[in-house]
Design a protein that fits this description.
5 helices; about 80% helix; membrane; transmembrane helix; transmembrane
């Protein structure tokens, strides 16, 4: 047994200070655990914020890519519409041509190669239609007839342009869709 009467003040101070040191260490340890829990919670919130920022950046990228791709589609659509409206030709100095030519160049970087090839084909057909129209007009002004082959060539070109105009969205495929599942970023 402990003889409490023989306990000196120095011994009590040593025992009490040791006990206080243990209690203080436990309190500090508990505070450290609480701080660590708070840090984990802050890190989790930061991760959530970062995830949201990443999702927002991806949506922004998708939107910008869609806008650029849609501008190419709109230029092709406008050129074909003008050609259909005019009977397969578009004047060489028409602004629609310049817009389409610029869009055709951008398409090389925005779409798969088959889209660029299809746009090149549209360009060539509209140019062919314009050439045929110009030749027919010049021939008619000179000789008052269209020649034996030009009307059929004009008709064939007009049919091709009309069909392409009606099915233009097939040329671009899924690359003009905004949904997560359909749009390909790379």
């Amino acid at each position: 047994m402990i003889d409490w009467t023989g306990l000196s003040w120095e011994a009590f101070a040593t025992l009490a200070s040791g006990l206080l040191a243990v209690i203080a260490a436990v309190i500090v340890g508990l505070r450290q655990v609480a701080i660590q829990r708070e840090q984990v919670a802050v890190a989790a919130r930061q991760t959530e914020i970062l995830d949201r920022q990443t999702a927002l950046a991806e949506l922004t990228l998708r939107h910008e890519l869609f806008e650029k791709r849609y501008a190419v589609y709109a230029a092709a659509n406008n050129l074909l519409f003008k050609a259909v409206q005019n009977g397969e030709w578009v004047s060489y100095n028409d602004e629609v041509r310049a817009t389409f030519a610029a869009a055709m160049d951008k398409a090389k970087f925005l779409f798969r190669p088959s889209v660029s090839a299809a746009l090149q084909e549209i360009w060539e057909k509209v140019n062919e239609g314009t050439r045929i129209h110009t030749e027919m007009k010049a021939l008619y002004d000179r000789e008052r007839h269209y020649g034996p082959d030009l009307p059929q060539q004009s008709y064939d070109c007009a049919i091709w342009i009309s069909e392409r105009y009606l099915k233009l969205s097939d040329v671009f495929g899924d690359e003009l869709k905004l949904s997560d599942h359909d749009m390909k970023l790379g």
